[in-house]
Amino acid sequence: MSPRKPGYVVPETLAEASEFLREHAEDARIIAGGTDVLVQLRRRGRAGGEHPRWLVDISRIPGLAGVSTDSGTISIGAMTTHEEIARSPIIRKGGPLLAEACASVGSPQIRARGTIGGNIMNASPAADTIAALAVLSTRVRLSDRMGTRDILITDVFVGPYKTSAQPGEVLMEVYFDALAPTCGSAFVKLGRREALAIARLSCAVVIERDDAGRVTRAAIAPGACLPMPARVESAEEMLVGKVPDEAAVDAAAREVAEEMVRRTGVRWSTDYKRPAVEAITRRAIWRALGVNVE
C-alpha cells in the first residue's frame, strides 16, 4: 500500500483494500471515479456533518476494469467507466439496453470518470444502470480476505443508499448472460431536462419471443420509483405466453404503475408518477418488441 496521507489510502491489491476496510468499517469509504462520493462529501460538509476519516482509492488495483465475454457470459469489472460500457461492442451486442443506460448517465465528463461499481454500491434509487442490470439478471461478485461471494444485483440493496456488502467486501465485477438474438430490449429514462439529468423515472425491459411471436420470457424493472430496485413479476406474467397486443402491453404497464403505488403508498407525487410510470413502461415494452413509439 502506498504511504498514507491523512484521510487517504491507495491499496494496490484487493487484499490490502479489504483488510483496511474491515479494520476501519465505521469511518472508511471507497472512492473510484469519485463522481458520487465527492458530491456527497461536499453536501455533508455544507450540512455540518462528519466526513469519513479515510477515503480508500481502489483505482490502482489491477484487474478491476474492462469488459470481456466467455461462453456467452459477459463480465464487467467494477472500475469500468460508463463511457467504456456504452461504447463496448460486446455490451452493444449482448446487452444493448445497458449500453443505453450508461450512455444516459450525466455528462460526457461524468461518464468518463464514473464507474459501474460506484453506480451500484452508491445504491441510489435513481441510479441509471440498476434497472438495466436487474432485467439482465446480473450477478455481482464481492471479495474480501475470506474469498468471494456472488449475489443477484437486486440482493445488493437493503434500502436507499444502503447495501448488503459486509465490512471489508469490495465489488470486483458484475456478470450476466448475453441476450439471445430472439430477445429485444429497451431502456427509457425520464428526467427534468435533456442533459445532466438524474433520472426521475426510468424503465428497463427484456422480452424474448418464439417463432410464433409469443412471449417466452419477460423482465421489467422500473427505476427511480421504488424504495429498492426490483423487477415487477406480476407485470411480466401478463405478457408471457401471449402474442403481445395493445391490450396486453397496456395491462402490463398499468400493473407496473400500480405496483409502485403498492410499495410506496399514495403520496403527493402519485397523481404525477402513476401515469408517468405507466407511460414510460408502455414505451419501453413496445421498443423491446421492436416498435418505436413516442
Tell me the distance between the termini: 53 Å
Sheet having the most strands: 5 strands, antiparallel
Number of self-contained structural domains: 2
Overall body shape: globular
Tell me the radius of gyration.
20 Å
Which CATH class of the largest domain? Alpha Beta
Ranges where pLDDT stays below 50 over 5 or more residues in a row are none
Strand content: 15-25%
* Helix and strand pattern: EHEHEEEHHHHHHEEEEEEEEHHH
Strand neighbour order, sheet with most strands: 4-5-10-6-7
User: What would CATH call the architecture of the largest domain?
Assistant: 2-Layer Sandwich
Total count of helical runs of at least 4 residues: 11
Helix content: 25-40%
Topology of this structure?
Blueprint (H helix, E strand, L loop, with lengths): L7 E2 L4 H10 L4 E4 L5 H10 L7 E4 L9 E4 L2 E5 L4 H6 L1 H6 L1 H8 L4 H6 L2 H6 L6 H8 L3 E6 L2 E6 L4 E3 L2 E2 L6 E8 L5 E8 L10 E9 L5 E9 L9 H5 L8 H19 L5 H19 L6
Parallel strand pairs: 1-3, 2-3
Antiparallel strand pairs: 4-5, 5-10, 6-7, 6-10, 8-9, 11-12, 12-13
Structure, briefly:
With 294 residues, the protein is an alpha+beta fold. 35% of the residues lie in helices and 24% in strands.
Question: How does this model look, in words?
Answer:
The protein is α+β, with helices and mostly antiparallel strands and 294 residues long. It folds into two domains: 179 residues, Uridine Diphospho-n-acetylenolpyruvylglucosamine Reductase, domain 3, CATH 3.30.465.10; 106 residues, 2-Layer Sandwich (Enolase-like, domain 1). The protein is 35% helix and 24% strand. The protein is built from eleven helices and 13 strands. The strands form four sheets. The protein has a five-stranded antiparallel β-sheet. The chain has a three-stranded parallel β-sheet with strand order 1-3-2, covered by helices on one side. It has a three-stranded antiparallel β-sheet with strand order 11-12-13, with helices on both faces. Helix 5 runs antiparallel to helix 8 and helix 10 packs across helix 11. The longest helix has 19 residues. The radius of gyration is 20 Å and the shape is globular. The N and C termini lie far apart (53 Å). The mean pLDDT is 89.
